[in-house]
Design a protein that fits this description.
By secondary structure, the protein is an alpha+beta fold. Helices cover 26% and strands 47% of the residues.
Amino acid sequence: MDTRVAVISIIVAQEESVARLNSLLHDYAQYIIGRMGLPYRAKGVNIICVAADAPRDIISALSGKLGELPGVTAKTAYANVEGAAKE
C-alpha cells in the first residue's frame, strides 16, 4: 500500500474539543509518527503538529474529522515524495 508523509497542523480554540481530538488521534495512532503540542496561553489556543505516514485517504479523513470539531482548525501539508510501501 502506497503511503504519504504529511504534517497536520491543528489549532484548538475551544478546550471542550480536546477530548474528542485526542480520541481521534488515538484512533489513527498506527499512522502517527509523532506529535508536538504547544499551549499558547497568551492567545488562549493550543497548537498541535502531527506527523503521519499513511495512505492519502487516511490522512485526508483524519484531517477532515479534526476540522469538523468545534473550535478546531486543521490543515495538511504533504511531502513531495511518496512513502515506502508498508509491509
